[in-house]
Design goal:
The complex is a heterodimer of chains A (about 475) and B (about 210). Chain A has 15 helices and 19 strands. By secondary structure, chain A is an alpha/beta fold. Chain A is globular and about 55 Å long. The mean pLDDT of chain A is about 95. Chain B has a seven-stranded mixed sheet with strand order 4-3-2-1-5-6-7. The longest helix of chain B is centred in the last third of the chain and has 14 residues. The chains are: A alpha/beta (about 475), B alpha/beta (about 210). The interface between A and B is large, with 81 and 60 residues. The complex binds iron/sulfur cluster (SF4). Iron/sulfur cluster (SF4) binds next to loops of chain A. The site of iron/sulfur cluster has 13 residues of chain A, from loops.
Chain lengths: ~475, ~210
C-alpha cells in the first residue's frame, strides 16, 4: 500500500504498541536548551536514573543569553543560574555536542542543529520547545515536548505517542515578487487557522516547496506549530542531500552512500492517502503582515485591519475586539499606514544566512527611519554571524542604522534584556505575536525579513515590492 | 503524580479563545529551575495590574478587578471552563504546573492545543473536550449561578451537572489508566527496556550513522 512520509517515519520508530494505539517511539536525536530541561535532569537524579544514550543529546543555551556585552557574562542572576545549571547537567550526563554560552557555534537550538548536520532525514528529533517542528524540513519526524517528556526521553530514549492524522498542504503556482517562505506560511496559517492543524502532522508539498531552499523549508516547518500541528514535514530530495553533505555530524564515506540511498525513499508514495488535503495557489499570495495577537490574524500588505462590527460569531468578534484593543489599532485601518517603533530581525524562523542576505539587499544604501527607536539584527548562530560578516552584511546593516548583535533567541520571546516596552510596536521576523510575547504590553507584527527591512526604512509597514 | 479519580469542584469560566501559554504563565517565570510555586503567577498579566517577576510575593500586588478569576465567587475553583484551542503556543510545562499549583484539576473546553493537552496528563490535570453546545451551556450556567459546581468521574468518563444531566467524554484508555492510578510514565516504559534495547541494536546495525559519537 502506498505510504505517506509520516507513515514511513512513524512505523520505522515504533518500539511497542499498547492496545489503544499508544505507542513507544524511539528517539534518535534529543536537542536540549536551558529553559525546559533543569526540572527533567532533576527528576532523573531524584529517581536515581541515568540517561539512556547521552550521545543522542545536542545541547545549547539560547533563550536566556544576552546579545550584547558578552564580556560582562550573563548579568541577570536567575538567567545565569539557568544557563549554569545546563552546563553542569551536560557535564554530568554527557552529550554528542554542547555549544556553551560564547562558544563559536552557540546559537538558537533550531539553527545549530541543522547547520551542524545533527538533524538528519529519517530521524525522530525532539526538544523541549514547540518550534522543534523546524527540523521536519529534513524529512525528520520532529516535534516539541514538555519537560516531563524531556525526562522520559532522557531516561528511556523513547516517547509515548499516539499516531497523528495526516494532512497534505500542497502549494503550487508561481509566487509573486517579494513573496518569501515566511509569507507563504503566514498565508497558509491565515487560511487554515491556528487550530487548523491540531491533531495532524502536516506535510508540505507542491512545486513551491520543491523549489524552495532548505532554509526556506525550515521557515515553513518552523511555523507548522502555529497552525496547531506538532510536526511539519517535507520530503527529502537533492536539495536536502546537497545541504547536508560535509556538515560536521553528517555521515561520510560508505555511510554517506548508504544514508543517501535510504533518504531517497523518504517521501510520500504516489497515491498515498492523507486524512486531509489542502491546496494553496501561491500566485494569490502577496507579502503578509499580522495585525493581531494570533498568527492567524494576518493580512496582505495592501489589506485593511478587520472590523468587528462585520463579524457574526460572538466569540470571534470579541476575539477581534480584544486584539484590536491590545494592538492599539482602529478597525478598517490600512496596514501600510501603521507606524512602528522597533524592528527585530532574528529568531529560529528567520535568522539564517539567506534571511540576513534578503534583509540586507533591501536596506543596502538606505537608512532606517529617524522615527525608529531601535532596529536590530540577531543572527541565529555564531556560524551564521561569521558567514554574514565574511559577506560584509554586518556593514550593510550597521551603515543603515541597525544594531548587529550576538546570536540567541533574543526579542523573539524577550527572556533576556531585549524586549519591547508597553505600547511599543514592532515589525518582527519571529513566529508569535501573542500578547506580551516580546515584552509586557508590546505589540508584535510578524513579517518576513524583507518586509521587516522595508518597514525599518519607511518607519511603517511598507510594500517591499516597491523597493525591490 | 497525583491521582485523578473523582472531582467535585467549583467551576470558573475563562471566556476567551486561543489562550496561549505565554498568557498562562509569562516567560519571566520560566527562568526558575524548579517545578513548583507557579500558581501565584498563573495568568499573571491578566490577573495583576503590575508587572510580575519570579520570586515576587503576590499577596499585596494590585489585582485586576475585571479578570474573572479575581472575582470572589470563583475563589477556590478547581475546574476551568475554556474555549477553542486553549494552551496553544509554546511547549512549556510550566503552564500545567501553574494551573495545577493554582488549584485547577480539570479543564473543560472545545479543543486544546496538542502539546499542552499532553502535558496536562503528565501532571494530574484532566483536560476534557466536549461539544460546543455542551461547553456553551456550561459557560451560561456557571455565569448565571454563583457557586456552580460540577462532578467529574474519570472512571465513568462523565461530567455531571447539578440539574442532573450527565455528559459523557472521551479519553485515551492508556492516559486514563495512568491518571486513575497516578502512575509515572517512565516506570511503565522501563518495563519495556529489553524491547527498546533490541530495537536500538537493530537500528545501530542498519543505520550506524545515527549513532555517531
Ligand atoms: S527563537 Fe523564539 S521560537 Fe525559536 S526557540 Fe528561541 S524563543 Fe523559541
Amino acid at each position: 500500500m502506498p505510504q505517506t512520509l509520516y507513515d514511513k517515519l512513524w512505523s520505522s520508530h515504533v518500539v511497542h504498541e499498547e492496545s489503544d494505539g499508544t505507542a513507544l517511539i524511539y528517539i534518535d536525536r534529543h536537542l536540549i536548551h536551558e529553559v525546559t530541561s533543569p526540572q527533567a535532569f532533576e527528576g532523573l537524579r531524584i529517581s536515581g536514573r541515568k540517561a539512556w544514550r547521552s550521545n543522542s543529546i545536542v545541547a545549547v543555551p539560547d533563550h536566556n543569553t544576552p546579545t550584547k556585552n558578552w564580556d560582562q557574562g550573563i548579568t541577570d542572576p536567575i538567567s545565569r543560574q539557568q544557563v549554569e545549571t545546563l552546563d553542569s547537567n551536560i557535564r554530568q550526563t554527557g552529550a554528542l555536542a554542547y555549544f556553551p554560552f560564547k562558544d563559536r557555534k552557540q546559537g538558537i537550538v533550531h539553527v545549530i542543529g541543522p547547520e551542524n548536520g545533527v538533524t538528519l532525514p529519517g530521524m525522530t528529533v525532539v526538544c523541549g520547545d514547540s518550534h522543534t517542528s523546524t527540523h521536519g524540513a529534513f524529512a525528520a519526524l520532529a516535534h516539541g515536548i514538555g519537560t516531563s517528556e524531556v525526562e522520559h526521553v532522557l531516561a528511556t530514549q523513547t516517547l509515548l505517542q499516539k499516531k497523528s492524522k495526516t494532512m497534505l498542504i500542497q502549494i503550487d503556482g508561481q509566487p509573486g515578487k517579494g513573496v518569501t517562505p515566511k509569507d507563504v506560511v503566514l498565508y497558509v496559517i491565515g487560511q487554515i487557522g491556528t487550530a487548523g492543524g491540531t491533531g495532524y502532522a502536516i506535510e508540505f508539498g507542491g512545486s513551491v516547496i520543491r523549489n524552495m531552499s532548505i532554509e526556506g523549508r525550515m521557515t515553513v516547518c518552523n511555523m507548522a506549530i502555529e497552525a496547531g500541528a506538532r510536526a511539519g514535514i517535507i520530503a527529502a530530495d537533492d536539495n536536502t542531500i546537497n545541504y547536508l553533505k560535509g556538515r560536521p555530524y553528517a555521515p561520510s564515506g560508505d555511510d554517506w552512500d548508504k544514508a543517501v540511498a535510504y533518504w531517497r525513499t523518504l517521501h510520500s508514495d504516489e497515491g498515498a492517502q492523507f486524512d486531509k488535503v489542502i491546496k494553496i495557489d501561491a500566485a494569490k499570495i502577496i507579502p503578509q503582515v499580522t495585525w493581531g495577537t494570533s498568527p492567524e490574524m494576518v493580512l496582505s500588505i495592501d489589506g485593511i485591519v478587520p472590523d468587528p462590527a462585520k463579524i457574526e460569531d460572538p466569540v470571534k468578534r470579541t476575539g477581534v475586539e480584544r486584539a484590536l484593543e491590545y494592538m492599539g489599532l482602529n478597525p478598517n485601518t490600512p496596514i501600510n499606514t501603521v507606524k512602528i517603533d522597533k524592528v527585530f530581525i532574528g529568531s529560529c524562523t528567520n535568522s539564517r544566512i539567506e534571511d540576513l542576505r534578503a534583509a540586507a539587499a533591501v536596506v543596502k544604501g538606505r537608512h532606517v527611519s529617524a522615527s525608529l527607536k531601535l532596529a536590530m539584527v540577531v543572527p541565529g548562530s555564531g556560524l551564521v554571524k561569521e558567514q554574514a560578516e565574511r559577506e560584509g552584511l554586518h556593514e550593510v546593516f550597521k551603515a543603515a542604522g541597525f544594531e548587529w548583535r550576538e546570536p540567541g533567541c533574543s526579542m523573539c520571546l524577550a527572556m533576556n534584556d531585549d524586549r519591547l516596552s508597553p505600547g511599543e510596536r514592532c515589525a518582527s521576523t519571529s513566529n508569535r505575536n501573542f500578547e506580551g510575547r516580546q515584552g509586557p504590553g508590546g505589540r508584535t507584527h510578524l513579517v518576513s525579513p524583507q518586509m521587516a527591512a522595508a518597514a525599518a526604512i519607511a518607519g511603517r509597514f511598507a510594500d517591499v515590492r516597491e523597493i525591490l | 503524580m497525583n491521582k485523578f479519580t473523582v472531582l467535585d469542584g467549583l467551576a470558573a469560566p475563562l471566556d476567551r479563545a486561543n489562550v496561549d501559554t505565554d498568557a498562562i504563565i509569562p516567560k519571566q517565570f520560566l527562568k526558575s529551575i524548579k517545578r513548583s510555586g507557579f500558581g501565584p503567577y498563573l495568568f499573571d498579566e491578566w490577573r495583576y495590574m503590575d508587572h510580575g517577576e519570579p520570586g515576587m510575593d503576590c499577596t499585596n500586588r494590585p489585582r485586576n478587578p475585571n479578570f474573572v478569576l479575581n472575582q470572589d465567587r470563583y475563589q477556590g475553583a478547581s475546574i476551568l471552563l475554556t474555549r477553542d484551542n486553549f494552551g496553544c503556543g509554546s511547549s512549556r510545562e510550566h503552564a500545567p504546573w501553574a494551573i495545577e499549583d493554582y488549584g485547577f484539576r480539570a479543564l473543560i473546553g472545545t479543543s486544546f492545543a496538542d502539546i499542552f493537552f499532553n502535558n496536562c496528563f503528565k501532571n494530574g490535570v484532566l483536560p476534557i473536550v466536549l461539544p460546543k453546545e455542551e461547553v456553551d451551556a456550561l459557560f451560561a450556567m456557571t455565569e448565571a449561578t454563583p457557586g456552580f459546581k460540577l462532578h467529574i468521574d474519570l472512571d465513568a468518563q462523565t461530567v455531571s451537572r447539578p440539574d442532573g444531566k450527565v455528559i459523557h467524554f472521551e479519553v485515551d484508555q492508556f492516559r486514563k489508566y495512568c491518571l486513575l492510578n497516578g502512575l509515572d510514565d517512565i516506570g511503565l516504559t522501563l518495563r519495556h527496556a529489553d524491547k527498546i534495547r533490541a530495537f536500538e541494536d537493530k537500528r545501530r546495525t542498519e543505520q550506524p550513522w545515527l549513532f555517531a559519537s
